[in-house]
From TrEMBL:
Leader peptide range in chain numbering: none
Cross-referenced Pfam families: SLT
Record's protein name: Lytic transglycosylase domain-containing protein
Ranges for domain Transglycosylase SLT: 96-168
Superkingdom of the source species: Bacteria
Organism: Rubellimicrobium rubrum
Family: Belongs to the virb1 family.
Length: 213
């Protein structure tokens, strides 16, 4: 006959493990969870078109992005006349250098189109923020190479970055002697307009002693 007297005294082997495990689960649920700091987007650098409205942020972002790709050659270039335009450029970090080139384009857009992305000049020859001719855009291999595409602010500026990357590195100057920007944009041929553009961009934080934009 089977002896059942000791059956109630046998404890399952897992019970001793389960109790402390459950306790740990409960304590873990009650413990404060680590706080994950929110990702704060980096502030955009100051541009001459900022006062036109928040829609210009897209222009700034597109220009800064283009300077990391097809305009990357500009970031390693130290033009011979850079002291006129951006005194802090030589020792500037890549983001400050990119901000300078974007800022210069924003200052140029004032004279080319008064910051109007739909502007068409020269009897239908030049289009957009910095007035680029479709033939010029095609010659430099821009993605935007038609009048309708060049009246898109971001695409116009991306093309401008591509053009500047070719001419500035070719000539070794921002605009001196008709080279660099001056090879394609008329406002650089005017001493007064050059002075105003240089005065504006050189006063920005990214051109002064390594202050983050």
């Amino acid at each position: 006959m089977q002896d059942k007297r000791n059956t109630s005294r046998v404890r399952p082997a897992t019970l001793g493990v389960a109790v402390p495990f459950l306790t740990l689960l409960i304590l873990g649920a009650c413990a404060p969870q680590p706080t994950v700091a929110p990702v704060v987007p980096e502030a955009l650098p100051a541009m001459a078109w900022d006062h036109q409205g928040s829609h210009t942020d897209a222009w700034t972002e597109a220009t800064m992005d283009a300077l990391q790709t097809e305009g990357a050659a500009l970031l390693s270039e130290v033009p011979g006349d850079i002291g006129t335009w951006c005194p802090g450029y030589v020792e500037a970090a890549p983001r400050q250098r990119a901000a300078f080139w974007a800022g210069l384009l924003s200052a140029l857009a004032r004279f080319e189109s008064t910051w109007n992305p739909q502007a068409v000049g020269g009897g239908g020859k030049w289009f957009g923020l910095v007035q680029i001719a479709p033939a010029t855009a095609r010659g430099y291999g821009c993605d935007a190479d038609s009048g309708s595409e060049l009246t898109n602010g971001a695409e116009n500026l991306e093309c401008a970055v591509r053009i500047a990357a070719k001419t500035v590195t070719r000539d070794g100057v921002v605009a001196a002697g008709g080279g660099g920007f001056a090879a394609d944009w008329g406002p650089f041929a005017s001493a007064e307009k050059r002075r105003e553009m240089a005065q504006w961009v050189s006063s920005q934080s990214y051109c002064r002693n390594q202050v983050s934009p």
